[in-house]
Specification:
Blueprint (H helix, E strand, L loop, with lengths): L29 H10 L2 H5 L18 H18 L4 H10 L8 H11 L8 H12 L13 H7 L5 H4 L7 H5 L5 H25 L4 H4 L3 H13 L5 H31 L4 H5 L10 H19 L2 H23 L6 H14 L1 H13 L3 H14 L1
Helix pairs in contact: 1-4, 3-4, 3-10, 4-7, 4-10, 5-16, 7-10, 10-13, 10-15, 12-13, 16-18, 16-19, 17-18
């Protein structure tokens, strides 16, 4: 961690600490400790077999939640260093932000949310917090990973007022309409940069979109011209990589320049002043915000709604819904530890308690494990 952090950056000194008191680490920062606990967690390892857009078995070169998280961390650290923010904290947030994601990407989340509608719903940011606060079982002295307040704050990007009321101090900013720290804001925007541009790469690799169609998006056309002018005759994968890299570069440059200007104008003297700002200080200029919106719209229409992706989405939702139905009707169909926990929560909180444990179990599955579990259930029925 650099010594010349900005006065409004998060440091171990101004941190709000951990839920359970611990001795400070001897040779690393509090946020390096967070990062290390995340990397060594079971939930983090499972991300390698959880998808972004494509189901894991469809190819070895597509992004997974793990590679995506690493790419988010790289972008976030670059920006944090240039703005004298806490690199270790943004890395920890970036690596943890998808720990609660279901198998099969957003389609799995949508299906699980529908299944849980009568029991409080399901949202992957809240589930990521639940993973690090409760579900990880790697320490004898406390449940979860006992991460710092600031890492947990960054994981929880959005939250309804109803859910926020049950989160104590962590939920207060949603009720008081306050901003998170700059590191949390940065990790959120780095996530957008990473998934927009890398979904382009994966979509092109899969043959679901092509550069000609992509060039109808102004920023893609602009960077494609830059690449072809700089590298005459370039084609194939090299051209795609150069375009994606160039687009990441211009988005990151705009993010740094715009965010630095906003911070100078707001002149926060400390992190408390950051939290009191009427809006986020980390973000794109109006021009690049519009470019980002146009790019997301293209991906929504041409990639995420592509017939092949839509077919996979429907299959994934059917699998998640069927597994939820099976396990909710018979807890014994889950492994003993999950079945015991479901019965215990059912006894305490009724069917909603059991349903939450079923959701925990399904959300923790990898794509291939969910496929195997579904196939096994079909053979048993």
């Amino acid at each position: 961690m650099p010594l010349d952090l900005a006065p409004y950056a998060v440091t171990p000194t101004n941190s709000k600490g951990r839920r359970y008191a611990e001795e400070p680490p001897a040779y690393r920062s509090e946020f390096q400790r967070d990062r290390d606990r995340i990397i060594h967690s079971a939930a983090f390892r499972r991300l390698v077999y959880k998808t972004q857009v494509f189901v894991n078995h469809e190819g070895d070169l597509y992004r997974t939640r793990l590679t995506h998280s690493l790419e988010v961390a790289q972008i976030a650290r670059t920006v944090a260093r240039s703005m004298c923010l806490n690199e270790d904290l943004v890395e920890a947030i970036s690596l943890a932000h998808d720990l609660g994601h279901t198998p099969f990407g957003h389609s799995g989340q949508d299906a699980l949310n529908a299944c849980m509608r009568e029991f409080g719903g399901f949202e992957h940011n809240l589930q990521s917090l639940r993973v690090v606060d409760q579900l990880e079982e790697s320490h004898a002295d406390f449940p979860g990973l006992n991460l710092t307040y600031e890492t947990r704050e960054g994981i929880l990007k959005h939250c309804s007022a109803t859910n926020a009321r049950g989160l104590g101090e962590l939920g207060e900013r949603f009720l008081q309409r306050q901003q998170p720290g700059l590191e949390a804001q940065l990790a959120n925007v780095a996530d957008e940069i990473a998934y927009n541009n890398h979904d382009i790469d994966d979509g092109l690799r899969a043959g679901l979109i092509n550069l000609t169609d992509l060039a109808t998006v102004p920023i893609v056309a602009e960077q494609l011209d830059v690449v072809r002018h700089r590298h005459p005759g370039i084609s194939g994968r090299r051209e795609i990589h150069e375009v994606v890299r160039s687009m990441i570069g211009v988005f990151v440059t705009d993010l740094i320049n715009t965010s630095c200007e906003r911070v100078r104008d707001a002149a926060p003297v400390d992190i408390a002043a950051v939290r009191e700002q009427p809006s986020a200080l980390i973000g794109f200029s109006d021009g690049y915000a519009s470019e980002k919106t146009a790019l997301k719209q293209f991906l929504r229409e041409h990639l995420y709604r592509h017939p092949r992706v839509s077919k996979m989405t429907k299959q994934a939702q059917d699998i998640v819904s069927k597994l939820f139905e099976i396990y909710l009707n018979d807890y014994q169909r889950m492994p003993p530890e999950h079945a015991d926990r479901a019965r215990s929560h059912h006894d305490a909180d009724g069917l909603a308690g059991g349903a939450r444990i079923v959701a925990d179990y399904i959300a923790g599955m990898t794509d291939r494990f969910a496929l195997q579990a579904h196939e096994a259930s079909r053979k048993e029925s």
